[in-house]
Amino acid sequence: MDHRGAEPPRLTPTQMKVLCCVHSGLLNKQIAYELGMAEATVKVHMTALMRKLNVRNRTQAAIAARNLGWLRPALIRIAD
């Protein structure tokens, strides 16, 4: 998961959209609905982007993307 000193991996625009949804906490089924694709297609994109980021799970993928500066830290909403 360490990409320091190396050129960051290149994700496709769709892989970036999927990654943003993962970072937002959406499940594969929800991502599929949001992006208008089959859940199986989301899984294909997840597998590809996790391989490119050299991570083993979706949490590590979101952390790696944030560490690369691709995503902003999620805002936590606290009820009044």
TrEMBL record:
It comes from the Bacteria. This is Response regulator transcription factor. It holds the Pfam family GerE. GO terms for molecular function: DNA binding. SUPFAM superfamilies: C-terminal effector domain of the bipartite response regulators (SSF46894). Keywords: DNA-binding. The keyword DNA-binding applies. One of its GO terms (biological process) is regulation of DNA-templated transcription. It comes from Sphingobium limneticum.
